[in-house]
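For the sake of transparency, this paper describes our internal protein records without simplification. Such a record has a labelled line for the sequence and another for the backbone structure tokens. Nothing more is needed to write down the fold, since each code stands for a local backbone conformation. For reference, a complete record is included directly beneath this paragraph.
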Amino acid sequence: MSLNKKVITLENASKVYDGKYVINNISHEFAKGESIALCGHNGCGKSTMLKLLASIVSLSSGKIVYQKKLKFAYVPEKFPGMEISMIDYLQGIARIERVDFSLVNELISEFYLESMIKTRLNKLSKGSLQKVGVIQAILAPRDVIFLDEPLSGQDADSQKMFITKMNELRNKGVTIFMACHEKMLINELSDKVYTIDKGKLMEVKNPGELQYLVYVRKCPKLQAWLGMKSNGDRYEITVKEAVLKEMVLKLYDEGWEIVGIEKLD
């Protein structure tokens, strides 16, 4: 994860439906390469937030700033069923993206869909449709991927493959946003977890996961990373135990002087 480059910024963002603020004056920065999970009850605003960030729906007020012209992929909770076969649809996407058909066949195999390649999309189960949605999203390079309940209806083997593919993308610096509720998915894929409460974006801490504060000395030659908080003559950054070693190495590689590491209670 690259914490020093912001990719999407919300500035006083609000969205109103039927006179109600679903998203209420949110300002927040998301970093390149972060994997973000949005959780919470149905109707809290998870899907709306995804659609706003992906520019599928427009804000009522405020603005969204993108780091550059980003290439998005969006997978809705209910992928549309159409009167076209799975293979024709995915090969059509491959033509548009100028991707070799061999990659289509490889992904179809990895997601256990070989027996359904000639089945029309409107005849597929919800879980199979979600797999098709994921495949079309990862066929070509993306900067950001938005996924609304991506594991809905998927079998256990396909869930594992999905997590493997998403982790491969994370390692390439792709930013991932997921609206989801599966604890397994949140634990396996997310760098940060948020919920939306009364229109506000609230970070959720995983009570079962150890976190550490890493302290580095301020240096005028080095630009503070997104996520670093100023504390006197040093910065502090909160890091999950699972990525602590990797983060410490990245800090050293950039030239930061680490002055302390403290386990959070």
In short: The radius of gyration is 20 Å. The CA atoms of residues 20 and 148 lie 22 Å apart. Residues 6-79+104-204 form a domain with the Rossmann fold fold (CATH 3.40.50.300). Residues 156-171 form the longest helix (16 residues).
